[in-house]
Every structure is written in structure tokens, then in C-alpha cells.
From TrEMBL:
<dbReference type="InterPro" id="IPR036452">
    <property type="entry name" value="Ribo_hydro-like"/>
</dbReference>
<keyword id="KW-0378">Hydrolase</keyword>
<dbReference type="GO" id="GO:0016799">
    <property type="term" value="F:hydrolase activity, hydrolyzing N-glycosyl compounds"/>
</dbReference>
<dbReference type="InterPro" id="IPR001910">
    <property type="entry name" value="Inosine/uridine_hydrolase_dom"/>
</dbReference>
<comment type="similarity">
    <text>Belongs to the IUNH family.</text>
</comment>
<feature type="domain" description="Inosine/uridine-preferring nucleoside hydrolase">
    <location>
        <begin position="25"/>
        <end position="328"/>
    </location>
</feature>
<dbReference type="Pfam" id="PF01156">
    <property type="entry name" value="IU_nuc_hydro"/>
</dbReference>
<protein>
    <submittedName>
        <fullName>Pyrimidine-specific ribonucleoside hydrolase RihA</fullName>
    </submittedName>
</protein>
Amino acid sequence: MTQFPYYEQALYRPDFGSKTLGEPVVFNMDMSAGDFLALFYLLKVPVEVINFKAIHLSPTGWANTATIDVIYDLLHMMGRDDIPVGLGDVFGMNQYTAENSVKYGASRDTEHPELRQPLALEVWESVVETLDPGSKMTILTNGPLTNLARIVTSEKNATSAIQEVYIVGGHISHSDMDKGNVFSVPYIEFAEFNLDRVAAKTVFDSELDITLIPLGIQRRLGSFPRILERFQETKTTPEAKFAHRLLSRLYRLQQRHLRYQHTDIFLGEILGAVALAGYHSSLKQTLRVEPINVFAEGVEFKDGQTVTDEYHGKLVKILENVDPTAYYDLYVNEQEIQSSRL
């Protein structure tokens, strides 16, 4: 007699049959509330539009590495145990990592290597091997760019398999009053939370095709009342209930506590997933192209700033506007059809 007599170990792997799979996508996330809402959306977009290949996880201040189990639970509930999860670095580039320490003689627990969580770069390499000849992947980065920078600097020319990168983050300031959101370090006024400055510099100096979704448009579309009102009209599937309750809790915290005034940044993280899917013309996306540079010079008050630089910048597509009503409708409508297995 076991402690859990009704427990059944099962893996849910989808059978796509004769469906024509869409664009291969890798999602790079941290453990913030907004990233889980974005993950729900990506898992519910039709596979003919997005062929979800892998997740790269960046442990950050929102949650530690052990919470990777939450992602596995979510994938299991959604019937997608086939999606591999790769663990990225806990710290930014040029900082200590356990993997780097091995080079200098540090010991590692290697008695059971088969139980070790796959690393982000290992998962990337395995997914690249499964691509059809000539196929390339699109990467959506909702977390720090550390994992993507590791791919860019890897010795195996991994970037040749990348079609395009959507980066949710960065802040292009247009005035002294247009400040960033690094509220935990007051003297860093114009940077944005999602950017590991050295990694961002590495990515923006690369040959990657980049679409940037900066803080400005995230703020314009970050309206709790509007998206919560839209959820009131939807069917109560498990996915819709989860998203509605989470957003409601964040909104209540923002209203009641001064230290939670930043919670609307999580709404902006949904935007990257909706823009990437972009299979509805009603979204009416408009883009502009600008030469962008990232400061990473070791000057604390300046590092992490994303600026327009005509002389040294990289030409980047910047999401300038979308239809707000269509944006909320597209996210909420995907929650109306139940696709969870549990």
C-alpha cells in the first residue's frame, strides 16, 4: 500500500497526426507571474501557427532554481510533457557559475549525472538537431538575455539556426522624465529589469534579426481593469480561471500596497507572446526601425540603458503600437477553449 494509492505516473505527449506544424519557437523565461501567463498563451496557440520546441529558464530574483518544477507541472497539465526545459545561469554574464568553477578544479556531484537538470545550451543543441533541413527557429525572450548570449557565444555557430528573436525588455527613453523600472536600485534611472547588461550588449552586437518590445509599449497596454473586464465575459475554463485569479490578485496588491506598484509590468510580458503569434490581422501591429545600442561599460548608473545610436547602433525592429482591444481579446479568447488535460 503506497502513500498515494491513486497516483499514476503518466506522460502526456500530443499526437499532431497530419497537421502541418507552424514556426518552431523557443521560449526563454524567468519565473515571474507574467511569464507564466505568456506560457499559457503560447501553449494554447494552434500548433499550425507555433511549433513549441523548448523552454529556457533563467532563475532570477522572482524565484529560485527549484521552482522549475512548477513549469514541469504546468506542461504536464497542458498535455505537453514533450517540451524540454533547459536551466540557464542564475547570475548574469561575467559572474560566478558552478559550471565555470569546474575549469579551476572545483568538484561537482557526478555520481548520478542522469538526474541532473539539462542546461539551456544542452537543450538548445538537442532541439537544433531535430530541425528539418533549412528550418530555423524563432526565440521569444521574456527573461534576461543571458541564455541567448550563451548561444551567441557558443563555439558551434548555433545562431545559424535562429530565424528571428523577439525581446521583451529594454527601455528607450525620450526625456528625463521617461524613466525605466529598476525600482530596486534608484540611481539606475533609465534601465529596464529584463536586461542583463553584458548579455544584452552581446546579443545586440550579434547578427541576429531582432524585434524589440520595449517598456514604453508595455506600459501603454498594461491596464488591469480592461483585461479583467474582458475576462468577466469569457467561459470559465481552468486556464481562464487561473489567469483571471492571478491578474486579479496582482491588481489588488497594486491598489493596496505601495511596494506592489510595479505589478503592471507583468501585463507587458504577455505582449511578446501575443505579438509573436500575431496570426490575427486585428492586432494591427506597427513597427519602426532604429539603430539601437546597449551600454555595458562598467558605469553603474549608466549600464543597461538602451539608446538610439546612429553611429554604433544595430538596426532593430521596434514594436510601436498594437490595437489594445484586439490585444486583450486575443489573449482572453485563447483561454476560452479548454486544452488542459488535468
